[in-house]
Amino acid sequence: MKYISRDNLLLISNRRTADLAARVGDQLQVPLTEMIQRQFADGELYHAFPTDVSGRDVVLIAATPDDGAHQELIDLIAGCRYWNASSVNVVIPYLGYSTMERAKPESGEIPKGITRTRQIFRTRPDYVAFIDLHSEAVLHAHAGEIRTRHIWTEKLAADTIKGLRIDNPVLVSPDYGFSKRVARLAGLLNCPHTAANKDRYDIDHTIVGQLSSAVKGRTAIICDDMIRTGGSMLQTVERCYEAGAVDVLVMATHLILAGDARDRFSAGRISRIIGADTYPGRQSDDLLEVYSVAPLIAGELTHYLRLK
Description:
Layout: E1 9-13, H1 18-28, E2 36-39, E3 45-48, E4 57-61, H2 67-82, E5 87-92, H3 112-121, E6 127-131, E7 147-151, H4 154-163, E8 169-173, H5 179-189, E9 193-195, E10 198-202, E11 205-208, E12 219-227, H6 231-242, E13 247-255, H7 261-267, E14 273-276, E15 288-291, H8 294-305
Parallel strand pairs: 1-4, 4-5, 5-6, 6-7, 8-9, 8-12, 12-13, 13-14, 14-15
Antiparallel strand pairs: 2-3, 10-11
Helix pairs in contact: 1-8, 4-5
């Protein structure tokens, strides 16, 4: 594979991910190029590249937390192809609909995690990287012509937890399906881990059963890939205290915190919510401890693109 010069790199983003993309640019020593954008009276959006794209190696960083951000990503990739970019390389920090990667038999459900990722792939990017996917099934939603990567944040998460200097921690998975990833993180922290028993009975509703006594006398850190409404997390918090935990923190890569989730966590017995800046608009405050994935993305791009 050829080396790519930083001078030929064009770094852009969709609107929702501009802050994170700028941080990646700082790491790469490549400025973020802002698209020319306008909105017409009827709501249609105008995009134009402010510089010649032909022959450039484009890096596009775009989370897709809503339908507009998803469509903008598709438009930007298609625009790069239209104006003959040399290569189009995409990083998706947070993939919307990622929990809907399959449909139940005879349900009539649309597995939008797959169908929407296929829409992205059909615009013909050369490379697409995702961060902490809910399911890796979406990686294979193309015909083999696109290079895909799944980037894990475990090392950054472990470093953040170490920086908090938590005494006697134990990691807790909210269900057995996520326990392998929690076990890897526990290995980096050299601490024990356990799992709760969670059953889902509706789209946004779960029941969390008993938890092992491994948390007794320890600080429990409940880990998941995302916090959406926080319902199962808050149930797991209560199960931890019932099992003898002395303190409880929660950690998830993608801090969606939909609806009144933040208020519910603020009212709960939780010391801290730890997470990444993959979901737009999340930053550290009195409740959140947010670490940036910018160095992780920059390192991945430097390696994959062989920047010089």
